[in-house]
Amino acid sequence: MTEAIRTTCAYCGVGCGIAATPLGPRSVAIRGDEAHPANAGRLCSKGTHLGETVALTGRLLHPVIGSKRASWDKALDLVAKRFRETIARHGPDSVAFYVSGQLLTEDYYVANKLMKGFIGSGNIDTNSRLCMSSAVAGHNRAFGEDVVPARYEDLDEADLIILVGSNTAWCHPIVYQRIQAARAARGTKLVVIDPRRTETCEGADLHLAVKPGTDVALMNGLLAWCDRHGGTDPTFMQRHVDMPEDFWEHVRSGHDLWTTAKTCDLAPAVLQQFFELFAATPRTVTLFSQGINQSIRGTDQVNAIINVHLATGRIGKAGAAPFSITGQPNAMGGREVGGLASTLAAHMDFAPDNVARVGRFWAAPNMATKPGLKAVDLFRAMDEGRIKALWVMATNPAISLPDAGRVREAMASCPFVVVSDIMADTDTSAHAHVRLPAAGWGEKDGTVTNSDRTVSRQRPFLPLPGEARPDWWIIKEVARRMGWRNAFAYDRPAEIWREHARLTAYQNDGQRLLNLRSQAAMGNEAYDAMQPFRWGGRPSRMAGFRQPMARRGWF
Ligand SMILES: Nc1nc2c(c(=O)[nH]1)N[C@H]1C(S)=C(S)[C@@H](COP(=O)(O)OP(=O)(O)OC[C@H]3O[C@@H](n4cnc5c(=O)[nH]c(N)nc54)[C@H](O)[C@@H]3O)O[C@H]1N2
Ligand SMILES: Nc1nc2c(c(=O)[nH]1)N[C@H]1C(S)=C(S)[C@@H](COP(=O)(O)OP(=O)(O)OC[C@H]3O[C@@H](n4cnc5c(=O)[nH]c(N)nc54)[C@H](O)[C@@H]3O)O[C@H]1N2
Ligand code: SF4
Ligand SMILES: [Mo]
């Protein structure tokens, strides 16, 4: 029998390990990888049925220009030429990439490098904008870096788990199973904070049907309760947390139990039950996702949760953490390479010394010096005629962005649209001048990072179908044709991984926790054999430096 190939599920940020055994052409048996730390062999129904996705029905199998099949050379030359001409005529900010948490870290790295270092614009944003840009901003504000200070093992070691704005039973089923296992094993209590009574509430001890958009008030009410009942941790705060002077003054006014209950539309007795449970349980993990992130107050909501954990010392210890869980399989990898318009690369922002550092590392001729357009603004700018060439990779904004009708109109009016996708016909590719066939799951080769910072390999076990090519290959071929041959001379994903690792370590004397120094000299064979690993070590290391409280915006 053929040996199973260890890879990672393509569906969500839990990042479950998979053992895939090829059975014949386009046929594979799927089971959970017992040795993977994210799932220990378990799979949800989506992962279990991954084998059914490897058929070629509907796949895009060769490049298409207009509605005609084209050779790779012709298609790549055309993309490079049109981007070059647009930049020459209208400047670097007249072009944009809209990319995706479905890309692998290596794909993402090359796309980000091309846009921010060589084209010279910050105009690369990602569908992860829709899920977690608030989480990124919240972590940056609280910790000075986009670090999620949690591990899945914390769920096994917690006595209380709070799910805020997260329908975990549906959206992150293996995390939910892990929570239920902790309940069975150690009597862990589960509280769900969600305006709707979802399936996730069925397995909970308490459901708080909070009024939508009042989570900041709820968290500050909890903090005020802890303050009043001796539930904060002054020693921890003194050691690790920079508090704005008026912090407690704000918390203490207007956040008593009754006011909070009224604001959140909750019965005071139920709220008190929750506060008491929290105050009595040092080992608490608060998981949150879209009910927190996808909000006009998303960042404040994230910080309100993190602040509760900082002020009560429930962070950096076994079973205690604020835990943002991610949606897409590689949303975290995208955050690490800087795939958002508001970040630069390797957890650095656009501060001048960062721009200079990354520019030196890349030997970049045209470093972007400021953030680019974020997803919604990007398509708005296109609608106004300011973006004249767009390249969409691994996402379907024509239906997934807010105000999708306007997004479709914007793309229809854009002079040049390129779409890289695995499928021939998507709502977005209907607007494409050039369609490029990408490699899909089972064919792709590279790494992904899951919600708890575990990096895993996605390994190919199927040949590339038709003329499909990996995304990193497509991007570097365009970059080379745009004139940057040496900077994009990659032959395999391992080379890109090493470069990414070197950049995280470059002139990094501890300022950035994301430091993959140990990976930087890894050989090709070691890359192929890479075992899942979590960067940043144990979260306790992270609490060892001063963590400023968010300074504004939490009220
Ligand atoms: N089956 C399946 N699983 C998926 C995906 C999929 O498409 N299908 N997609 C993946 C992706 S990309 C993502 S981002 C994740 C999303 O995973 P989740 O974040 O769990 O997704 P939602 O269903 O949006 O759940 C958000 C919850 O927040 C609640 N909510 C709304 N407003 C508020 C509020 O103001 N306060 C609070 N406290 N709660 C609120 C909603 O009622 C809802 O139950 O799922 C991932 N998993
Ligand atoms: N109404 C509504 N809208 C939403 C949401 C919602 O809950 N409700 N959720 C939002 C959220 S959280 C998210 S994450 C977004 C998701 O929205 P999208 O990013 O649009 O998600 P998908 O439909 O998964 O699109 C992924 C595309 O990538 C292609 N693809 C898959 N793998 C590869 C690959 O390796 N390479 C390339 N080049 N292409 C590939 C697929 O064929 C598909 O066309 O939607 C957001 N929009
Ligand atoms: S929980 Fe997510 S990563 Fe795990 S098997 Fe299900 S879809 Fe895949
Ligand atoms: Mo998402």
From TrEMBL:
Domain 4Fe-4S Mo/W bis-MGD-type: 2-58
InterPro entries the UniProt entry points to: Mopterin_OxRdtase, Mopterin_OxRdtase_4Fe-4S_dom, Prok_molybdopt-oxidoreductase
Record-linked PROSITE patterns: 4FE4S_MOW_BIS_MGD
Name used for this protein in its record: 4Fe-4S Mo/W bis-MGD-type domain-containing protein
SMART domains (alphabetical): Molybdop_Fe4S4
Superkingdom of source: Bacteria
A Pfam family: Molybdopterin
